[in-house]
Structure formats: C-alpha cells, structure tokens
Amino acid sequence: MVTLSELQIKDIIVVEEGRRLGNITDLEIDGERGRITHLIVGLKGKVMGLFGKDEEIKIPWDHILTIGKDVILIRKNGNPQLNATHLED
Fold this sequence. Notes:
Layout: H1 4-8, E1 11-14, E2 19-22, E3 24-30, E4 35-42, E5 56-60, E6 64-67, E7 71-74
Parallel strand pairs: 1-7
Antiparallel strand pairs: 1-2, 3-4, 4-5, 6-7
C-alpha cells in the first residue's frame, strides 16, 4: 500500500522526454467507485501551495506506467497539458 504523503515526495517524469513535471499536490477520486482518477501536479510558480499562479496539471491515472521508489513514470498519450512550455525541465 502507498500513502498520499509517500506519493507526494516522488518526482513525476514524462518518459517520452525524460522531463520532470514536479510533485503531486492532490488527487482526484471517483467517489462512486472509490478509485483515483487523476493525479494533480502543481507547476512552478507556486511555493508550498501559497504563492504564485494557481496552475496545475491533471494526469489521468491510466497514464501512469509505474510507481517506483523515487519516481512516478507517466506517458504523454496526447495530454495537451503536458505540451506546455512552462513546465519544469
């Protein structure tokens, strides 16, 4: 089992580019099915959720390739939010 606090410290990496997106700030859950539907990743500009623009990326759960010890590997799979130029390098 993995807790939210354990997920939040893992880096999110887009495998097609080897690019680091950031870390999980929240989860979206389907209350009827009791399943996680999306990972929410806060973008650069926000400091500890307090300062800066309120930008985030929603990553569908089915875009996750693997959850490792230190990273979560995801695939782009046509997600237009992952094409933004202001993401972390």
